[in-house]
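Bench notes, afternoon.
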Amino acid sequence: MAETTLSGPTHQILENDYASEWMGIQVLALSDGHATIRMTLRQEMLNGFGMAHGGMIFAFGDTAFALACNPAVPAPGEENSITVASGVDINFLKPAFRGQVLTAVADRRSSAGRSGLYDIQIFAGDGQASEPGQPTPAQPGELVAEFRGRSRTIPKK
């Protein structure tokens, strides 16, 4: 599937995702098994050391993971299932600070039956992000975290 550059909440799972809305997450690109998102670190996202709270970076990576796991428009027969995390690991490599723009790039590595494996790289760059619809830089900053997610497709309740 070709990659699509988007503006605003264009994925069905973001319609009622108040956490992602509060974080100010913007979708830059979606395709089958891939998502690129960004957000700017605000003061209320920092820990007592003045750097990004690990939970904020984790939640940001988790949103990219969810977007990569679930199609924006389910194919016929997929409407009654969702893909969720069955487990994740995160490695924090460098700190990120207030005002930096975080970019998460999520990619499917493997899919077999109802299980999948995804790698999400989280970068921190200085300055303002480009407008939605504009090309994203090849290197969106320094790598600050590596997130690996294991997924499972289950029936929608």
